[in-house]
Specification:
Strands 1-5-4-3-2 form a five-stranded mixed beta sheet, covered by helices on one side. A hairpin with a 3-residue loop joins β3 and β4. The protein is built from four helices and five strands; from the N terminus they run αβαββββαα. By secondary structure, the protein is α+β, with helices and mostly antiparallel strands. It has two domains: 103 residues, Nuclear Transport Factor 2, Chain: A (Roll); 60 residues, no CATH class.
């Protein structure tokens, strides 16, 4: 079931493509906190951004969108002058968006296992398991990603069924272990996690 807030965020993101300044009405410009340094605060900043971007004939594809309490988060494909993949997180208060974070990466891949950065399920199922799944992920992030206990990966990852969407890494436990523990296996990139801010 699609909520009003999910529909509003979908309209907001599609406003990048259409230039529809009215899509920014979901933003409370008096309270809005924008964590993307390239966008001005408030809906006026978004409206101006939409107008500017729409002149480049962008394409916006919303792959999946979810709601968790006061948060709406979306996984998106953007095609401006180049193709990018984004995660957008919006916090709502009194029916309007008051805070936004995003993470945008240039589209790459598919990876060595043939998976893209956006394929896979697009709907949440087993919603009765949300809280227990959240705790499983929290424990994984703390033990493996933050504390670096890579010898414990077998306790968390089903090697036979694990699917990887990172464009540099293939499926399976050994590839993930290498990517996390050996920068040479990940194009020289050291992956470091410091703390969990929020799990959605």
């Amino acid at each position: 079931m699609t909520s009003k807030r999910k529909n509003q965020i979908c309209a907001l993101l599609k406003g990048i493509e259409t230039g529809d300044a009215a899509a920014a009405a979901v933003v409370n410009e008096n309270k809005y906190i924008q964590h993307n340094p390239q966008t001005h605060e408030g809906s006026e900043g978004l409206a101006s951004l939409f107008e500017r971007l729409s002149n480049t004939s962008p394409r916006v594809n919303i792959v999946r969108v979810f709601e968790d309490g006061d948060y709406i988060f979306a996984h998106t494909e953007y095609d401006f002058t180049s193709s990018n993949i984004g995660f957008e997180v919006f916090r709502f208060e009194d029916g309007l968006a008051v805070e936004h974070w995003d993470n945008i990466q240039q589209r790459q891949g598919p990876n060595p296992s043939g998976h893209t950065m956006v394929d896979g399920p697009t709907e949440a199922t087993d919603l009765n398991s949300t809280e227990s799944n959240r705790e499983i992920v929290r424990f994984f992030v703390k033990e493996i990603l933050i504390n670096g206990k890579f010898d414990k990966l077998d306790d968390h990852i089903d090697d036979e069924h694990y699917t990887e969407h990172n464009p540099r890494i293939c499926d399976g436990l050994s590839a993930l272990r290498s990517a996390l523990s050996d920068p040479a296996a990940n194009d020289g990139i050291t992956i470091q996690y410091d703390r969990v801010h929020r799990l959605l």
